[in-house]
Design brief:
Distance between the termini: 64 Å
Transmembrane segments: 26-49
Number of strands: 2
Helix content: 55-70%
Keywords: Membrane, Transmembrane, Transmembrane helix
């Protein structure tokens, strides 16, 4: 961290406060896929049983 008058300058690690996780994108992609499948099944079963 570096101060220049009233400004504070941080490097990338200090600004993000940790490690950038790569697993988050896989969890989000897998969750999105599961939601699409679940909603499709509900929609298909609803129209077949109605």
């Amino acid at each position: 961290m570096e101060r220049q008058g009233d400004e504070v300058h941080l490097n990338e690690t200090e600004a993000t406060a940790g490690v950038k996780a790569q697993g988050v994108r896989y969890v989000l992609g897998f969750s999105l896929l599961l939601v699409v499948i679940a909603m499709s099944l509900i929609w298909i079963l609803g129209s077949v049983l109605h």
